[in-house]
Each structure stands twice: as structure tokens, then as C-alpha cells.
């Protein structure tokens, strides 16, 4: 009997009953985009849920990051960032007009290590662009200290960090701006979408304007912007999705807990992101497979695929090993030793709210029998 495939991610959908009244409203009033009424309600509800005041909804996180950089004046020079992320992080830096410079990682959080940044700062450095990878908070205080000392902006790629807290407060309140992704594969999705979180109203309005071609009003431009607006359909999905989000987060925590209980004491296998992290959203469940595990990480991925379980090597190769970034310093083979080791060991196991216990056990048994 062939068993149904289990993918690394499976989008959560809101109840249709919560979406349909919103769609009826859209169909009735025929406002489909451009700051419509559903979007405004979603923005306000999201702001309450996340505990942050200034949110600009956008079409996706990639464009949101480009706009954040543009608004922060980071359109040339160098931006210090992590090589261990989705390529969108460095693409956004490049699209904004700057050049990524890769710094090495903290082996515990898998995020940028603030102590590795200072040596890379030059007169061309304009900003830091750290990523809260897999929803695990960066060393926010360490990064702020380095940035303050050198007068650098801090723009967080918070694509994975929906609803993440530190000391009871949203991590989105740190840095100059943070950018969330609401892509289908994320903890919270609007099919495609994202949000830029600013620390003041003036910046929020500037981002809104940049996402709307840079228009100030029908006759005047503030700046050359692009079209990065979220449409009313995505906003309706988001608004409905907020109704069940606490359950989604607790279901993800349950799945992560089961993996941790069964896998964390296996020789050669570690579960890096869970040690001591409170307020986590369990966006992903990465495991690290070192040379003392009886098969390699790549073999384990293949053995899982044989039983229709599709784990993914997020994020391998490192961005710094991909064209056109691999010619940038310090991306050479001698640089970034921690990132290189993590990329060679990482495998993300399937995690989503409705991953049932039997399917999860099928994954765990396969890992254990390898
Ligand atoms: N910064 C970071 C750190 C990011 O990870 C990302 C995006 C961004 C910035 C940029 O955010 P956005 O501009 O997208 O808002 C996915 C996503 O396309 C991408 O958004 C995401 N990160 C990246 C990590 O993953 P793929 O190529 O891995 O997705 P795909 O199509 O292979 O899907 C993975 C699995 O999910 C599939 O095996 C099946 C399942 N799936 C996927 C989709 C899209 C579904 O079941 N239904 C679906 O609709 O890129």
C-alpha cells in the first residue's frame, strides 16, 4: 500500500465559514486592492495580536525588505547579514542596491553571531540585516550594541518569526524595522503576503507610500516606490486566519515536543533550536546530523523519501555558496566555519499543525531505524 506523501510544510487554512462573509463583502463593494476596508481591519487586528503598533501590509517579505532598506537609506554600500537563510534575504539587499557581506553564526541559535560582525565593518557598512532563523530570536542586545557603536541601522528579516516573544514582548519591536512573511509555507499565511513593522508612525506611512508607487496623493510622489500592496483577498484570508492562530501555535508546539522527546537523545543527532527558547513559534524542526550518526544527513534524507517523507535541507547550500554571492568575501572556503558546518548537517523535518501522531511516528521510526 502506497502511503500518502508527507511534505516539510503544509499550509494552514482558515475555516471557510470565517472567510466567506469577508469574500461576500469584497464581492459586494468591489474594492479589491489599494488600502481596502478588509485590509485596514486586518492591519488593526494584526497589530493587536502581535503587540506592535506600526504595521504596513505588503505583497511579500522580499519586497517588504527592499522597501525597508530603501526607507532606511540603505541603497548602496555593504550590509552585514547571515549566509544561513533563504536566498531572498540577500536578494533583497542586492535589489535595494547594496552588497551583502556574510558573517558567521552562533552555533546554538544558528543566527548571526554579534562577535563575528565587528571585524567585517568598513566605512562602506550601512546596516545589519540579521534573520531570526526558524523563528529563533537573534541575540538582539548583542546586535544592537555593535550597531549602536558603529552607527548602523538594524533591519530584521523576521520572515519566520510570526508571534515570537522574548521576555513576554514581541521580538518585532527591536531594530529599526522587521519584516514578516505570510507566504503559504509560513506559520501564518495569506497565501502570499508580508508585513513591515516600523517603530514609529512616520516610518510606517513612508513604507505604505513606497509600497504604493511612492505616491503621497494623486498628484504628488514622495519617492520612487514600487507596487508591493497586499490585495483584499489576501487580507481576508489573513483576517480569518487570525481566529485560529493560537491553536495553530499550540499544535506546532505539540509536534515539536513529540520530536524532541523521541529524537533529542540519539547519538549523532541534535535538535538545536529548542534549547531554552521561550515564546517560540516552531516554524521549523531542524535537526543536525553529525558524523557520529550511522548514516549521513544526505542518506537520511533519501531514506525518508523512500517512505514518502519529504524533509528539506533548509538552508543548504549557504547563500554565500550560490552564484552570484559566492565571489563575495568572506564567502571563501576558509570563511564562515560555523555556518558551513551547520549547512552540512541540517535537515528540516515536516512540521505543521495537523501533522497527526501516526504520520509523525512514521517519520520518527524511519529516522530511528536508519
Ligand atoms: N526571508 C526568509 C528567511 C525566508 O525564508 C523567505 C522565504 C523570505 C525572506 C521571503 O519571503 P517571501 O518573499 O516569500 O514572503 C519556500 C517559499 O517560497 C519561501 O517563501 C520561503 N522563504 C522558503 C523558505 O520556502 P520552497 O521553494 O521551499 O517552497 P516549496 O514550493 O518547495 O514548498 C515546500 C513544501 O510545502 C512543498 O513540499 C509542499 C508544501 N506546500 C507549498 C506550497 C507553496 C504546500 O503544501 N502548499 C503550497 O501552497 O520556498
Tell me what you see in this structure:
- By secondary structure, the protein is α/β, with parallel strands linked by helices.
- It has two domains: 16-103 and 111-242, Type I PLP-dependent aspartate aminotransferase-like (Major domain) (Aspartate Aminotransferase, domain 2, 3-Layer(aba) Sandwich), CATH 3.40.640.10; 245-369, Aspartate Aminotransferase, domain 1, CATH 3.90.1150.10.
- It is built from eleven helices and 14 strands.
- The protein has helices at residues 16-29, 37-50, 61-71, 88-96, 140-150, 201-211, 232-243, 245-263, 297-306, 337-345, 357-369; strands spanning 6-7, 54-58, 78-81, 99-102, 125-129, 153-157, 165-166, 169-170, 177-181, 194-198, 269-270, 285-289, 309-310, 346-349.
- The strands form four sheets. The chain has a seven-stranded mixed β-sheet, with helices on both faces. The chain has a three-stranded antiparallel β-sheet with strand order 11-12-14. The protein has a two-stranded parallel sheet with strand order 1-13.
- Helix 1 runs antiparallel to helix 7 (232-243), helix 3 runs parallel beside helix 4 (88-96) and helix 3 (61-71) crosses helix 6.
- The longest helix is centred in the C-terminal third of the chain and has 19 residues, at 245-263.
- It is globular and about 65 Å long.
- The structure holds ligand T4K.
- Residues 7-11, 60-62, 85-86, 88-89, 131, 157, 159-160, 181, 183-185, 194, 310, 314 line the site of ligand T4K.
Question: According to CATH, what is the topology of the largest domain?
Answer: Aspartate Aminotransferase, domain 2
- CA(first)-CA(last) distance: 21 Å
Shape: globular
What is the structural class? alpha/beta
Mean pLDDT: 95
Task: Write down the Rg.
Answer: 21 Å
Number of helices: 11
CATH class of the largest domain: Alpha Beta
Bound molecules: ligand T4K
CATH superfamily caption of the largest domain: Type I PLP-dependent aspartate aminotransferase-like (Major domain)
